[in-house]
Design goal:
The chain has eight helices and no strands. Helix content is 78%, strand content 0%. α4 runs antiparallel to α5, α6 packs antiparallel against α7 and α7 runs antiparallel to α8. The chain starts with a helix and ends with a helix. The chain is elongated and about 50 Å long. The longest helix is centred in the last third of the chain and has 27 residues. By secondary structure, the chain is mainly α. It has two domains: 52 residues, no CATH class; 71 residues.
């Protein structure tokens, strides 16, 4: 009888842990996201954006959603839809996601293209803090400094325009 209770307890715990921590993505989910990623890699950005949006709509409980939202934001960025990219990246950013550094990277460059230099610099500084060491870190540091200077000039211009 004790053995049956232990087996039952192990079964209950294993089932509840899957529900608590999220199930592994299905093969359909992996395939759908892979197709969207392939379109992005082939520079079919509009198709990649559509397929990513379809993925998010069709797989609302997927553990791959953060990756799909990121892909959709990247596709918008590549199509010069900077407002849409910023909206997508900001609304789905989670610092605990494994893709947080990539969200910050694209958000930084998206905000720079929008002329939001302070926000761009903040995002890229966040990227530097969360990303693994790599070859582009020094160029990102220079970009942050450049963006800080642009933000300073922008705020000085706004202040002088307000006085006139």
């Amino acid at each position: 009888m004790a053995l049956i209770r232990r087996i039952f307890l192990v079964l209950i715990l294993s089932l509840s842990s899957t529900a608590l921590f999220g199930a592994a993505p299905s093969s359909v989910e992996k395939r759908d996201l892979h197709v969207a990623q392939t379109k992005f890699d082939m520079t079919f950005y509009a198709e990649a954006e559509k397929l990513s949006a379809d993925f998010c709509r069709d797989h609302t409980n997927s553990t791959l959603l953060p990756e799909a939202f990121l892909l959709q934001g990247k596709a918008r960025f590549e199509q010069s839809n900077y407002v849409g990219a910023a909206e997508m990246l900001l609304s789905h950013f989670n610092p605990r996601d494994p893709f947080a550094d990539e969200y910050l990277y694209y958000l930084g460059f998206t905000q720079a293209r929008r002329g939001q230099y302070r926000e761009a610099a903040d995002a890229l500084e966040g990227y530097l803090q969360t990303s693994p060491p790599g070859t582009q870190r020094e160029s990102i540091r220079r970009k942050v400094e450049e963006l800080r200077q642009k933000a300073h000039k922008q705020s000085n211009f706004a202040r002088s325009a307000a006085y006139h």
